[in-house]
Amino acid sequence: MAVDHWVLWSSDEAGDEWGAAVEYPERMRHRLRGFLPDRVVGRYHGDDRPTLRNGDFAIEHRHLLAGDLDRVERRGPVTRT
After folding, report:
1. What pLDDT does residue 42 have?
2. Among 12, 37, 62, 73, which is least packed by CB within 10 angstroms?
3. Which residues form the domain of 15?
4. Do the domain assignments include residue 81?
5. Number of domains in the chain
6. Residue 39 forms part of a structural domain
């Protein structure tokens, strides 16, 4: 299947100038809004590869806070024997 998606990250430890601000609809319930991030960083995946193997995206927290998204890794599923 072709890849066409964004991967977004956030951190409660990020400063006010980190990442991009997120705007939510005014009608969103306040209880829900309390669980969502104020700021995020992200990367689009789709133009550079037609497909990706199954797995997760991971980044060390220190690299995330530094905005070093080139440190994102792909982690595949664990094979159990």
Report:
1. 94
2. 12
3. 5-75
4. no
5. 1
6. yes
pLDDT of residue 2: 67
Predicted pLDDT of residue 5: 82
Rounded CA-CA distance 9/66 in Å is 12
**Local structure of 75: helix, strand or coil:** strand
Joined tokens for residue 42? 């992200």
Q: pTM of this prediction? A: 0.74
Helix (H/G/I), strand (E/B), else coil: 21:
strand
Query: Which residues on adjacent β-strands are paired with residue 45?
Result: 5
Check if the beta carbon of residue 45 is closer than 8 Å to that of residue 6.
yes
Q: What stretches in the chain show pLDDT beneath 70?
A: 1-2, 48-50, 79, 81
